[in-house]
Hints:
Distance between the termini: 59 Å
Helix content: under 10%
Number of strands: 10
Order of helices and strands: EEEEEEEEEE
Amino acid sequence: EPVHDRTFVLKDPSIAVQPEDFPTVRGRMTTLSCGVVSSTSVNVTWLQNFSDLPDDPLISLTHQLNEQDVQVHTLTVKKTRRRHIGKYNCIVKNAKGSAKSRTAQVFFSSK
């Protein structure tokens, strides 16, 4: 029987890089990344504690394409405060469907 090289078809869209738990320290920068593979233009949103990200001047969202054609979406907290501690997910939507990342925990690491 014929062997196809494309045995694995990724779900579209899919999350190729999951956000990791991030131990942090008050006042330090915190970053979470979500790597997305999608055949069409994609909308990425972040949730904090399962709700929309609050408006926060300390939080910025950026994205760039890496060498593997994965769109890496990054949430950066410039100076981490107590209000930034919690659970984060990224939600990815395109014309074909949606995907949700694992839940990444941001927490103050004990000294």
